[in-house]
Amino acid sequence: MTLTEQMTQLAKNAKVASRELAKLTTAEKNACLLTMATALEQNAEVIKKANALDMEFGASHGLSAAMLDRLKLDDKRIAGMAKGLREVAALADPVGKILDERVRPNGLKLQKISTPIGVVVIIYESRPNVTADAASLCFKSGNATILRGGKEALNSNQIIARTMIDAGKIAHRGFPEHAIQVVPTPDREAIPILLSLTQYVDLCMPRGGESLIRAVAECSKVPVIKHYKGVCHVFVDADADLKMAEEIVLNAKVQRPGVCNAAETLLVDKTVAKTFLPAVAQKLAAKNVKFFTDAATQELLKDGSFNLQLAAEQNWFTEYNDYILNIRVVDGVRGAIDHINHYGSAHSDSIVTRNEAHARQFLAEVDSAAVYWNASTRFTDGGEFGMGAEIGISTDKIGARGPMGLEELTSYKWLGIGNGQVRA
What we know:
Elements: H1 3-21, H2 26-42, H3 44-60, H4 65-71, H5 75-90, E1 98-103, E2 109-116, E3 119-123, H6 129-140, E4 144-148, H7 154-171, E5 180-182, H8 190-194, E6 203-206, H9 210-219, E7 232-236, H10 242-254, E8 263-269, H11 273-285, E9 290-293, H12 295-301, E10 308-310, E11 324-330, H13 332-343, E12 348-352, H14 356-365, E13 370-373, E14 392-394, E15 402-404, E16 410-417
Parallel strand pairs: 3-4, 3-6, 4-5, 7-8, 7-12, 8-11, 9-10, 9-11, 12-13
Antiparallel strand pairs: 1-2, 2-16, 14-15
């Protein structure tokens, strides 16, 4: 079989499975998910043996300690995958909801009903637990999924998927075997081939760094839901509660700096900069944060023992995912909005202020997926939004935007119910 033939068969099988998945009831899907969760726990030793092969491969190919940690599966992480599946089973079924309903003057009844998308390709890096997370979310929303993890996690991903499939078949006789598939080859050419099959594949969701997401978006012929990077901002307004502002800035930057909703730039109104910046810089420096700043901030912090560098233009566009923060002094809420809309990535941005007029202006004019007033950017997350599990975050404007849970993995169709109506 050529690579093209292999990917085409994979996609064809997924399309057939998606039709079968659409027939499953909520109870049947939940039974499958709960059986899958138990199977992951019961097969922990087999999963860890497969993972050990991946760990050996990763170490021999120079993966960093941090990447090896992301790759590793132990009892705790396997239990976490099982817990995630049970949580998905407990969530409301997003399929079959009546989203809109109306009756036309001629008596024709119209209903807008949520439906599965169909076949979803998920591309991700390193963490094999994503295999279980993504597969369970797609399954609960009635979508067949094709999973492509990193080559370093191939053994782990395959055994997790196989365990889930076998458990699904035990739980329900009509479980479609190809509802969950892992791309079986690490060949990079598999991805553009798979994403050219528009007659079978409905959607692609890449999860990973900016280079991966851009490469996928550029080669794909099917729709791609994405966020390239998270250049998130906190703006401290002239009318901010400065104590609150300190706490929000610290949380947004250092609570977990390696995630996409961590703050990368702090903007401070010029009227409070002299008071606020030295105080907050001391606390950030205590957490080993280094700063790239504008000239005004350099002047205000020059007497402190801070790790300061003058920011270049590119710094304002940069997602660090590290203990690094840009700082700029701006002229009011207008200056903050203009900076964010120019340099930001439309992910998550926050204003700290007691001035409602300023807050409302910021909330209305900042063009991002999530915009906050007196809260940390770190809340842009499916769990924190009360959505349960999350499959990713989108900064697109068409379709899903912001944290994506089960409902964002559905489309809709219109049902027309008549009694003989014809168009005049």
